[in-house]
User: Which sequence fits this backbone?
């Protein structure tokens, strides 16, 4: 499979679209912010010290920081934006706990599973073909259901 092109207009928190300089800047900002977050909210039992070695945690914490910047540092933020951030923070904490499925919070880093994830390209193409072939039928069915108030 070919890799999708990365946008030249990547946001500063889009890891996939950053060049090495942008990634270095984001790492600097993110590490400082996560250290502050862990101390400020007492999260040393929730965010493992090796968070940076787990892609899903990096993405979650990056998104959380981007939302924090929008809520706390943007001049155009509304007065209730910090409350909205804390609501998102609660949901993010639950996701972070789920991504620590290997138990790094217990103090020992365990690398993410290195299980091979190989896509059967022929089966994928066949599935996409079947799906796209059925599309008109699904749309017609949806229209019938709306008309019939199922």
Assistant:
């Amino acid at each position: 499979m070919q890799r999708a092109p990365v946008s030249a207009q990547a946001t500063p928190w889009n890891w996939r679209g950053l060049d090495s300089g942008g990634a270095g800047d984001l790492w600097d900002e993110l590490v400082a912010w996560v250290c502050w977050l862990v101390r400020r909210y007492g999260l040393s039992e929730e965010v493992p010290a090796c968070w940076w070695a787990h892609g899903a945690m990096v993405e979650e914490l990056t998104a959380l920081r981007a939302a924090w910047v929008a809520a706390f540092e943007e001049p155009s933020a509304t007065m209730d934006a910090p409350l909205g951030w804390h609501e998102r923070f609660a949901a993010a904490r639950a996701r972070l706990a789920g991504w620590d499925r290997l138990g790094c919070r217990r103090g020992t880093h365990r690398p993410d599973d290195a299980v091979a994830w190989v896509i059967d390209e022929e089966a994928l193409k066949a599935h996409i073909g079947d799906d796209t072939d059925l599309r008109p039928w699904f749309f017609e069915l949806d229209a019938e259901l709306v008309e019939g108030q199922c």
